[in-house]
């Protein structure tokens, strides 16, 4: 396996490792600023590869923030390895996730982030956005790098296969095909509205954890994904409960 490095936006770097056994890429992202921030730690097994790749951009020991979307091995499995390699680094995660998991799992106390809280990295600013259960995980959330318009969107738009480092080709179709394989998204009445709220940020780059960085029409893609999940939720309701009967006309 090799980890490839791509600058997907000014000072935002993608570290991508294709795992052929799973036919999927695992991506981590570095926002290289005065206080460098890592989004996703990767699996523990991948730490030697990914940390060596990060060293091509910035010394690992300079890392100030270690972040991730939600508790899952590929998102935070190597968390303590990064903490050991970067003595000044703090884990920053949503307050709920810190309370229920990270306070116990991390080797150093984490920094809990509130919904909408901004970390000023010095030259770059990242905002925590809570997205509970979207696409999955009670503690789920994303980061938005405000100065470059980069949405670090975790497992949203997950696709299978190796793929390019970046693309302007549509990403909703591949995401729905992957959803047919994995069934990883929580379909609830909040799923579509949560994704549409992300479109309101008007991102210019979508940094996918399992797929290429997308630099096409990000707003439309988020609306398309939200619409597709709404349709699937409605279809599931019909399958379980049958068609909704018409409301009788009022008398009088």
TrEMBL record:
SUPFAM superfamilies: Metallo-hydrolase/oxidoreductase. This is ODP domain-containing protein. InterPro entries: ODP_dom (IPR045761), RibonucZ/Hydroxyglut_hydro (IPR036866). Gene3D superfamilies: Ribonuclease Z/Hydroxyacylglutathione hydrolase-like. Residues 26-162 form the ODP domain. It comes from the Bacteria.
């Amino acid at each position: 396996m090799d980890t490839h490095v791509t600058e997907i936006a000014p000072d935002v770097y993608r570290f991508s490792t294709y795992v052929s056994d799973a036919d999927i890429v695992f991506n981590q992202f570095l926002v290289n600023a005065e206080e460098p921030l890592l989004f996703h730690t990767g699996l523990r097994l991948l730490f030697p590869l990914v940390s060596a790749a990060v060293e091509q951009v910035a010394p690992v020991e300079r890392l100030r923030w270690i972040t991730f979307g939600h508790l899952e091995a590929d998102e935070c499995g190597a968390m303590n390895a990064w903490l050991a390699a970067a003595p000044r680094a703090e884990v920053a995660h949503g307050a709920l996730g810190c309370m229920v998991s990270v306070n116990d799992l991390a080797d150093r106390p984490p920094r809990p982030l509130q919904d909408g809280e901004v970390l000023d990295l010095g030259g770059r600013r990242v905002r925590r956005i809570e997205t509970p259960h979207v696409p999955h995980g009670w503690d789920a959330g994303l980061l938005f790098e405000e100065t470059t318009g980069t949405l670090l969107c975790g497992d949203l738009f997950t696709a299978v296969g190796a793929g390019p480092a970046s693309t302007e080709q549509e990403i909703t179709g591949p995401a729905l095909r992957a959803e047919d394989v994995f069934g990883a998204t929580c379909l609830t009445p909040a799923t579509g509205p949560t994704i549409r709220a992300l479109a309101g940020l008007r991102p210019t780059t979508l940094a996918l954890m399992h797929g290429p960085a997308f630099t096409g029409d990000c707003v439309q893609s988020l609306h398309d994904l939200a619409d597709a999940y709404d349709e699937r939720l409605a279809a599931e309701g019909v399958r379980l409960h049958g068609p909704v009967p018409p409301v009788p006309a009022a008398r009088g």
